[in-house]
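Hey,
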Amino acid sequence: MRITDVKAYPVSFPIPPANRVALGIGTAIKRDAVIVKLTTDEGIVGWGEAHHGRAHTTVAKLIDTTLKQLITGMEAHDVVGVWEKMYRYQLASHGMGAGACLAISGIDMALWDVRGKALGLPLYKLLGGSKKPIPAYAGGVSLGYQEPSLLIEEANKSVDQGYKAIKLRVGDSPKKDIQRVRAVRKATSW
């Protein structure tokens, strides 16, 4: 099963004002992503997502040009070989550094999707895992360096959605971190 095509779709869309969240680095006003479509000669299509690195069109262009040229015709089941070739000819020798890592990740994800579809197996089995429930938590960049009252407001949105745990961003200063963690813990009272 050979790789016949790779296409990256850079997408960006505004976040409506009512749905915007305060981030540790500012307020998110849009979301960017790079969706990767990898097609094989057997008609199997794998999908992946490359992190945008705040340059979604650049990451997509790297996939659509340089990386696509490197891997077209390669065996789709050879995930390690495909990754190694992209690494050797793009990242290790020259290139965009972090941008190449971002682009490679989307292709790698799409290859694993192809493998799972071709073999009729879910990804966790391909990776040697077993099916078991994993509790989800809310958080990420939106629960950051806000004042405690604003952070509590953001945390309560997650609590109202049914989350039993949240992830807070720390590293501002020990004193402020402790104040925020204590305030959120008291307000959420799981």
